[in-house]
Amino acid sequence: MSQRNRYNLTDLMAQCDSAAPIPDELKEWDQAPSVGLEQTIMDGQVDIGDVILQFRERLADNYAVIQLVLFGNRARGDYHCESDVDVAVMLLGLTCTQLSNPS
């Protein structure tokens, strides 16, 4: 198996053209409001457990949260400083269709 190239955010940003137009399919994602936790997690500024609890509190304002499950490299313990956080959210009484099409 060949070794994968590793990149960091600085390397990737250096390759970006900030004047390039955003494709239509990405505009909604790009313009979505921040949940306010992205910067907090970066650079190990706080314990990841605290961030997940904050996330749960924000969810609990609108949903009946049954359980949060940490998975992926952070759960396995093989993460690095630029790793994302994978959290599965279990909600009471809502299907995926209901969540994606609120009425």
TrEMBL record:
Keyword annotations of the record: Transferase
Domain of life: Bacteria
Keyword Transferase in annotation: yes
TM segment ranges: none
One Pfam family, short name: NTP_transf_2
Keyword Transferase: yes
InterPro entries: NT_sf (IPR043519), Polymerase_NTP_transf_dom (IPR002934)
UniProt domain Polymerase nucleotidyl transferase: residue ranges: 54-90
Matches recorded under SUPFAM superfamilies: Nucleotidyltransferase
GO MF, one example: nucleotidyltransferase activity
Protein name: Nucleotidyltransferase domain-containing protein
Species the sequence originates in: Marinobacter segnicrescens
